Amino acid sequence: DAKTTQPTSMDCAEGRAANLPCNHSTISGNEYVYWYRQIHSQGPQYIIHGLKNNETNEMASLIITEDRKSSTLILPHATLRDTAVYYCIVPSGSARQLTFGSGTQLTVLP
Amino acid sequence: DSGVTQTPKHLITATGQRVTLRCSPRSGDLSVYWYQQSLDQGLQFLIHYYNGEERAKGNILERFSAQQFPDLHSELNLSSLELGDSALYFCASSASQGPYGYTFGSGTRLTVV
User: Fold this and answer.
1) How would DSSP label each residue in A21-82?
2) Which long-range contacts (CB under 8 A, 24 or more apart) does A47-56 make?
3) pLDDT tens, position by position, for chain A (110 residues)?
4) Contact state of A42 with B98 under an 8 Å Cβ cutoff
5) CA of A100, closest CA in chain B: separation in Å?
């Protein structure tokens, strides 16, 4: 898997946008970027994934830079329930499983 | 409800014992993945099955084994349990063999005393 680098922790005020960065400078041309989150002790939850174009769904937006070496997950209006560990994952083309790193602990503050 | 069912939710057992964790994947999903998450540790991939066949192994101990049955449910067997095996065990399913669109269950919390 391509190595990803994420900040260990971030805070965000409730109602504001949460922008979570991820560096993946060794990403290959056909490798996708996946984002999952894990709310304390619950099973991880899929958020979004993308290849090169920006993606948006009901949960979040994913902005991938033109060189694809980094991406940003955006939660447009963070709520207290968005407090979780967010994982950015870039599985290799041959990988059959997701490898979770340390992720970013996002704390949404009231 | 994610559609992936794991039983039991909680399990307390003694060292040296053997337990079986069960996972029913989401309807139509052929892949089942098992992960272990120890206290304050990350998610460690254990093993992947696709349509009854083992496809990939991660950091799974020899004391651990798994299988996927014709009805696609999967079981993770943990034997000769040690205190360090206490952890959350998650199962995930997906429709394909690749790392796409995992759906995780709510996990089984195993406590070895």
Assistant:
1) EEE-TT--TT--EEEEEE-TTSPPEEEEEESSS-EE-SS-EEEE-TTSSEEEEEETT--GGG
2) A47/A73, A47/A86, A48/A73, A49/B100, A49/B101
3) 668 999 999 999 999 999 999 999 888 888 889 999 999 889 999 999 999 889 999 999 999 999 999 999 999 999 999 999 999 998 876 666 788 889 999 999 99
4) no
5) 6
Q: Say how far apart CA B82 and CA B69 lie, in whole Å.
A: 27
Q: For residue A82, what are its two tokens?
A: 């968005």
Residue type, B21: L
> Which tokens sit at B83?
């205190």
